[in-house]
Every structure is written in C-alpha cells, then in structure tokens.
Amino acid sequence: MAPVYPPISPYNSGYLQVSSVHSIYYEESGSPENPKAVPVCFLHGGPGGGIDATDRQYFSPWDYRTILFDQRGCGKSMPSASLEENTTWNLVSDIEALRKHLNIEKWIVFGGSWGSTLALAYSEKYPERCWGLILRGIFTLRREELEWFYQKGADMLFPDLFEPYKAAIPEEERGDMMQAYYKRLTGENEEEKLACAAAWSTWETSTSKLVVDPEYIKKAGNPKWALEFARIESHYFVNGGWLRDGQLIEEAYKIKHLPIIIIQGRYDVVCPAKTSFDLYQALGGKDNKMVQYRIFNCGHSAHEKSIEEALVDAADQFSSLG
Length: 322
Hints:
Blueprint: E1 12-17, E2 23-30, E3 38-43, E4 64-69, H1 88-101, E5 107-112, H2 114-125, E6 130-136, H3 143-150, H4 159-167, H5 177-185, H6 190-206, H7 214-217, H8 223-238, H9 247-250, E7 260-265, H10 273-282, E8 291-296, H11 305-318
Parallel strand pairs: 3-4, 3-5, 5-6, 6-7, 7-8
Antiparallel strand pairs: 1-2, 2-4
C-alpha cells in the first residue's frame, strides 16, 4: 500500500453562509487544470474536530478535486463553538449547499469516525449525489456506542486514563457522564467549562491510537480546539445526534448499490469494530461485491500507519469512479 501524498496547498478557499448564524470555511486542492479530476468531499471527525492540512494528503493531486470544510462551530468556521442551529441534519444540508455552490454534480464522500456518521447520514438522504463512499472507524451514534466510550466499557482497558475524565464530575452525577459534562460545557462558569473541555478532549486523544501518543494528546492543550471539540460532541451525543437509535444501520439499504470501502482498526477503542461489522452486514456483507471490508491490527486514528496507507489505497482505487 502507498504512503500519503506530499503536502499540498489549497488553490481555492472561502466562506459559505449556510444560515443566519453560521458561515462555514471550505477549501479546494488538487489540479484545477485537470477537467477530469474526481470531486471528493472530506468529512472530518468530532463533531467539532475541524480539518487539518494533512487531510488533503490521502488524495492524488492530479486525479482528485479535494473539498474540505470545517463543520459548524469549529476550525475556521464561525461562530466558534456555537451550538445554535447545529445538528446532524444542519450539517447534511451544509454538505448539499456546498456541493451546489461548487457546481459539483456528484462526488465521492470520505469520512472517518464522526465523519463516517455524517457520510452515512448524507449518502442515505442523497444517494444520487454520491459516486461512492470511503469510510473509516465507523461510528453510528447508537446509545451503546456512546456508553461504551463515555460511560462504561473503555474504562476497563484504560482505567488510568479514564480517571481524570471521571474526576471532573462529582460522584453523584457520574451515572450519566455525557449529560454531566454537557451541563458544565454549556454553563456560565468559564473556568469549569475549560477544565471539562480539557478533560473530555484528553480522554479521547489519549485513546485514539493503539499505543498512547503524547504528541497527539497535546491537541487537547489548545483551549479553543478543546472547547469546540468537547462542547459540540457532548451537544450531539446527549441529543442522540437527532437520529433514531440504530437509524444509520437500518437505512443502509439505501446505499448498498454504491461502491463502498470500510476501513477499520481491530483494536479501535473509540469506535469498536462491532459497529463497522454491523454496517458491513447491513450493506449485504460478503454477498455484496460493491462493498469492501478491510480490518487492520491497529487503533482508531487515521494516522495509524496501516490505516493511513489503506485510506490512500482506497482513494487511489476510487479515482476512476467519476
């Protein structure tokens, strides 16, 4: 499998006003001189994680017209950390608005972790706008998935790392950690808000790789990033993503005709492999030749070497779809 492509700068960027509240930042990279470049929409994680320059490097600069954007409330999008008019379906509408704004008929949709949730929600609503999907570290926002990581389950594997996350909440409120965090992340006490944002974000960054990566954990030390990440995530999670529990798996039949590659870390603690396998089965499993399921001996992060190379390989494979 191939390594990531060299760093590349956007050739176009701007802001799209998607509501009276929100303006989203977007950018395009690749080779504008290639009229046959395949459009691909990259959906970042979180929600609230924002895009990174390295996200452009999964895609051949000659073969792809790569579109990245910061979802509502995070990254360069404005206003920062805003929860107003910020739901899964608002973001699905933003993806469609951006497609129309850029005069794109159809595109490949690429998303990992929360990005896979959003990719599924978008493609199940607009399957006719998708050439295919590349999905990593599958997350469908079912209650069992949320409780595994934020309440009880992952703590059995990382008890030492879970302790600071748990300690931020008084013992009498620990029966529902997500709700307790949400209360504080949307409260008036700024000091408590920032402390909870740091604790929430540190727990997730600490467990994202098979081997704990101190450099990656440093992201949680950025107060702006941590607040956007924790505040928006908790907002989505206490509201069940404005999805019926199990909805994205149940409605996977709407996209089973599309080419789909699922890439998963077997030892992913943030988004355990069971969810990706449930999705694979809902799409027809081994009987559906349009769907590929690839599982690797690593963790959650897109920057695990095997996952990273598999994403590049998947994008290379799909570069002829358009």
